[in-house]
Specification:
Ribosomal Protein S5, domain 2, 60% helix, 6 strands, two-stranded antiparallel sheet, alpha+beta, 3 domains, 290 residues, 8 helices
Length: 290
């Protein structure tokens, strides 16, 4: 199934007394780029999240964010360093010119360096990861589902534009032989005067045929139809096809440019302009396909 490189998925759940929120979002990118935002004490989760998302994502700039809130509030323990506080007070009392009033406020205590010690309780990293993984997996499902939904819309749009291109090619194939014959007759008429003046008639006819051949676009339209067929086939493949589609569109653009340079009649020029416009819209869509 065709997937967009733009997606978003969010899941929040309470597991083992922790409220865990995981968000996964992405935008289009030429390659696969991953970054994560996690609480400072859970940095080890980033590489695990990269591996988990990498199983479902091949292209795009992906960002995952994790918020972990311990509902019990028992992840840290704060203790007052009595010895440190008493040492500061004793030192201040030792100054002869300082009248120390023994009514320190809580604000005064907080200002004392190293007055408090924050102790982080040891946690089971594997247990935390299993909980985060459960939430992240559900967020990833929503993320992929959104990508697939967007991809389905893009596919429909591209298929419709490919149909327009096929119709335009058929129109060119109808016009082209008539224009080629007109070129042939026009050149022949202009060269008659050279024939009457003694020029080699066979040589003149050969030159006219060569020029007419140069204005024929049969090969270009055949290749263009083949490229359209390849695009349709790729759109039905359940794999990462964005880069292949991008390459084919470049080839299609090359064929259209060649047709435009070979045939400069107003009717064909109009068709070529329409073809380039539709192809550009397809290219814009493909830039966001995984």
């Amino acid at each position: 199934m065709i997937r967009s490189m733009t997606g978003f998925g969010r899941e929040q759940r309470i597991i083992d007394g922790r409220e865990i929120t995981v968000e996964i979002r992405s935008v289009n990118h030429r390659y696969h780029e991953f970054s994560a935002k996690t609480p400072i004490h859970y940095r080890y989760l980033e590489e695990k999240l990269k591996t988990l998302t990498g199983e479902k994502i091949s292209r795009g700039k992906v960002e995952a964010s994790v918020i972990i809130h311990n509902l019990s509030g028992k992840e840290h323990k704060v203790t007052l360093n009595h010895d440190v506080v008493e040492s500061y007070i004793t030192a201040l009392r030792g100054l002869p010119d300082l009248k120390l009033i023994d009514n320190l406020s809580l604000e005064d205590v907080f200002k004392i360096p190293e007055a408090f010690t924050v102790i982080k309780y040891e946690v089971d990293e594997d247990l935390i990861w299993e909980a985060v993984k459960t939430v992240a997996a559900d967020a990833l499902k929503k993320f992929v589902a959104m990508r697939e939904t967007e991809g389905s819309k893009m596919k429909s749009d591209i298929v419709e534009r490919l149909s327009f291109i096929e119709e335009a090619i058929a129109e060119i194939e109808t016009i082209s032989p008539e224009l080629t014959e007109k070129y042939r007759q026009r050149i022949f008429e202009k060269m008659k005067e050279f024939i009457s003046s003694g020029a080699d008639e066979q040589r003149v006819l050969l030159e006219a045929a060569i020029f007419a051949e140069k204005t024929a676009v049969d090969e270009e339209t055949v290749r263009l139809k083949s490229h359209v067929s390849q695009c349709r086939e790729l759109l039905d493949i359940e794999s990462v096809v964005g880069r292949k589609l991008d390459f084919i569109v470049q080839e299609m653009n090359r064929e259209i440019n060649t047709i435009g340079s070979k045939i400069q009649e107003v009717d064909v020029t109009r068709i070529v302009v329409d073809l380039k416009s539709e192809l550009e819209k397809i290219r814009e869509q493909i830039q966001n396909i995984e």
